[in-house]
Write a structure and sequence with these properties.
By secondary structure, the protein is α/β, with parallel strands linked by helices. It folds into three domains: 1-220 and 331-394, FAD/NAD(P)-binding domain; 225-327, Alpha-Beta Complex (Flavocytochrome C3, Chain A, domain 1), CATH 3.90.700.10; 414-488, Fumarate reductase/succinate dehydrogenase flavoprotein-like, C-terminal domain (Methane Monooxygenase Hydroxylase, Chain G, domain 1, Up-down Bundle), CATH 1.20.58. The protein has 13 helices and 19 strands. Strand 8 (160-168) and strand 9 form a beta hairpin. It is globular.
Length: 507
């Protein structure tokens, strides 16, 4: 088969390598350079190696708990059953995961994991090590690579995806394919503050929507709790808290225990909201205190963070550092089955662009790299199998109505969209705020001109996804996981919602 993989993070590179090794003709199309994207920035590790008191079943339980009851048990079962094999494959491809003194893999623990089961490379440079190894593996093959090519749209022929349209060096061209595997990542730049690289503008999800694919759970946006609150966004890995660092307010009090009995090791959504509330109440950022770990341990275990914090004028071995939440990961996306198939024949989706059902309403730390590896391999294995319908409960959300032309809306800019999403569709949401966001977004959509440049296409994609996200958030009137409706009055540590997913079936 002629297979085109769009994207070059862990999911896309794994899918491309497996497809190539199965005898398919493979082309990788990537927005930037090969290996650009979120994978190379990942400080956290890969969950899936179990000690004597741990098991895949316990990892599955932790994943389901973090997902607030909305994870798909079958998808979670696949993730944890195949995780160890995918980690072994990464080692075989050259990833040098950190080892203990006896030569065994060194295991770390992160928030909401009951055991240490996470492997890291270079302390806090796991993503960079994985990306480098997979890129090198691709370079050793005959896989064609087209870099700096922007995905404009998917090409449908007779109801199936049979290629894609790209913009490269100002030239629009079509590439035909028997199958397209989307691995384009998420949409962190919907928000004013994000850990994502500049290219994370939701291009794959938007293209899938325009091609008629079902998209779900866009309201579930994970905000990483601890971004250095000084200078450009820089993530302070959750593993720092896993090693014992604490979050304190201006009075030195560990305030997260007010929201959850696990304190700093509570699920990310809980910790992020606790930080946002406390920072607002005291009028200044909260602080991450890692001083108890000592300078030598911090430099050894977290060399990247140690260097960056010092470059920005902080000695985190001697004083707590200011932190704030930022948009980090999208749990929703293009709906797939367990083999990456979407609702449109010929179109697969893997990694953050996909909604596999693994993450539910809130992703468990260090499951994202694992998901990319597991489902990237599964999609490649399914390329020649007969296409089967992808079932999903339908709860339509209409993001197509652009009839609102509120002349009171400010002029559209990407920065204005990002601030609107941060203010009204961020960590803390209300029906009034979501309605205001939708009104503004629809006014912008109604007057938006046809995009011609890559940047304009990005703006159009962000606008489409912003409206879809706000619509989904407004439709889900209860608080669950990363979706928190202040007006729902649900206790932070309380009920789990099993309400149906919010769906966009077509645009």
């Amino acid at each position: 088969m002629n297979v085109v993989v769009v994207g070059s993070g862990i999911a896309g590179l794994t899918a491309a390598l497996h497809a190539h090794e199965s005898g398919h003709e493979v082309t990788i199309v990537t927005k930037g350079d090969l290996g650009d994207g979120c994978t190379g920035l990942a400080q956290g590790g890969v969950a899936g190696i179990y000690g004597p008191r741990d098991s895949a079943a316990q990892h599955a339980d932790d994943t389901m708990d973090a997902g607030a009851g909305l994870s798909d048990p079958e998808a979670v079962g696949v993730l944890v059953a195949e995780g160890a094999s995918r980690i072994a494959e990464l080692i075989a491809r050259g990833v040098a995961f950190d080892r203990a003194a006896d030569g065994s893999l060194q295991l770390g623990r992160e928030a909401a994991h009951r055991h240490a089961r996470i492997v890291h490379a270079g302390g806090d440079a796991t993503g960079a090590a994985i990306s480098a190894a997979l890129v090198a593996s691709v370079r050793r093959t005959r896989i064609d690579v087209i870099e700096r090519a922007f995905l404009i749209d998917l090409v449908r022929v007779g109801g199936a995806v049979r290629g894609l349209r790209t913009l490269r060096d100002g030239v629009v061209s079509d590439t035909s394919a028997d199958a397209v595997i989307l691995a384009t990542g998420g949409a962190g730049h919907l928000y004013a503050h994000t850990t994502n690289p500049a290219g994370a503008t939701g291009d794959g999800i938007a293209a899938a929507l325009r091609a008629g694919a079902t998209v779900a759970d866009l309201e579930f946006v994970q905000f990483h709790p601890t971004i250095l609150a000084s200078g450009p966004a820089f993530l302070i890995s959750e593993a720092v808290r896993g090693e014992g660092a604490t979050l304190i307010d201006d009075e030195g009090r560990r305030f997260v225990f007010d929201s959850h009995p696990d304190g700093e090791l509570a699920p990310r959504d809980v910790v992020s909201r606790a930080i946002a509330r406390r920072a607002a109440a005291q009028g200044s950022p909260v602080r991450l205190d890692a001083t108890m770990l000592g300078a030598a341990a911090l430099a050894r275990r977290f060399p990247t963070i140690d260097r960056m914090t010092r470059e920005r004028g902080f000695d985190w071995a001697r004083e707590p550092i200011p932190v704030t939440p930022a948009a980090h990961y999208l749990m929703g996306g293009v709906v797939t089955d367990l083999d990456g198939r979407t609702t449109v024949p010929g179109l697969f989706a893997v990694g953050e662009v996909a909604r596999t059902g693994v993450h539910g309403a809130n992703r468990l730390a260090s499951n994202s790299l694992l998901e990319g590896a597991v489902f990237g391999a599964r999609a490649a294995a399914a390329l020649t199998r007969p296409w089967t319908d992808v079932d999903h409960e339908s709860c339509p959300v209409d993001a197509r109505a652009h009839e609102s032309r509120d002349t009171g809306a400010p002029a559209f800019t990407r920065a204005a969209l990002q601030q609107l999403m941060w203010d009204e569709v961020g960590l803390l949401r209300t029906g009034e705020g979501l309605t205001h966001a939708l009104r503004t977004l629809r006014a912008w959509s109604s007057s938006n001109s046809a995009p011609m440049t890559a940047s304009a296409h990005e703006d159009a994609n962000l606008l489409l996804l912003a409206e879809a996200t706000a619509s989904a958030a407004l439709a889900r009137t209860v608080s669950v996981g990363a979706h928190h409706r202040v007006d729902a009055h649900i206790p932070e540590t309380g009920a789990r919602s099993h309400a149906p997913s919010s769906i966009l079936e077509t645009v």
